[in-house]
Amino acid sequence: PYTTLFRSEMGKENIRENINIPGFDGYEVLKCDFHIHTVFSDGRVWPDMRVNEAWQQGLDAIAITDHIEYR
């Protein structure tokens, strides 16, 4: 993997790990996590932090799956 560096709006460096999984037959492979929790369930961070973590980890898509009955 290689990394991409950019400066966020607050001037802080943010690094993205790029996961290289080759596509095949004209298809692009997406890196996804379809089960993520936030403070609105039994997670410990806010949704915007989960989005930033996913970006840094090289993910292309996430699904926030908080438990509706939790809080």
Q: Tell me, what's the shape?
A: flat
Rg, Cα atoms, Å: 15 Å
Total beta strand runs: 4
Biggest pleated-sheet summary: 2 strands, antiparallel
Strand order of the largest sheet: 1-2
Q: Which stretches are poorly predicted, pLDDT < 50 over at least 5 residues?
A: none
User: Helix content range of the residues, please?
Assistant: 10-25%
Number of helices: 1
Report strand %.
25-35%
Mean pLDDT: 84
Order of helices and strands: EEEHE
Question: What structural class do you assign from the helix and strand content?
Answer: alpha+beta
Give the N-terminus to C-terminus distance in angstroms.
Answer: 38 Å
In brief, what are we looking at here?
With 71 residues, the chain is of the alpha+beta class. The protein is built from one helix and four strands; from the N terminus they run E-E-E-H-E.
What is the secondary structure topology, with strand pairs?
Elements: E1 2-7, E2 13-18, E3 32-36, H1 47-56, E4 61-64
Parallel strand pairs: 3-4
Antiparallel strand pairs: 1-2
Q: Your description of this structure?
A:
- With 71 residues, the chain is of the alpha+beta class.
- The protein is 14% helix and 30% strand.
- The chain is built from 1 helix and 4 strands; from the N terminus they run βββαβ.
- The protein has one helix at 47-56; strands at residues 2-7, 13-18, 32-36, 61-64.
- It has a two-stranded antiparallel sheet with strand order 1-2. Strands 3-4 form a two-stranded parallel ribbon.
- A hairpin with a 5-residue loop joins strand 1 (2-7) and strand 2.
- The longest helix has 10 residues, at 47-56.
- The chain is flat and about 45 Å long.
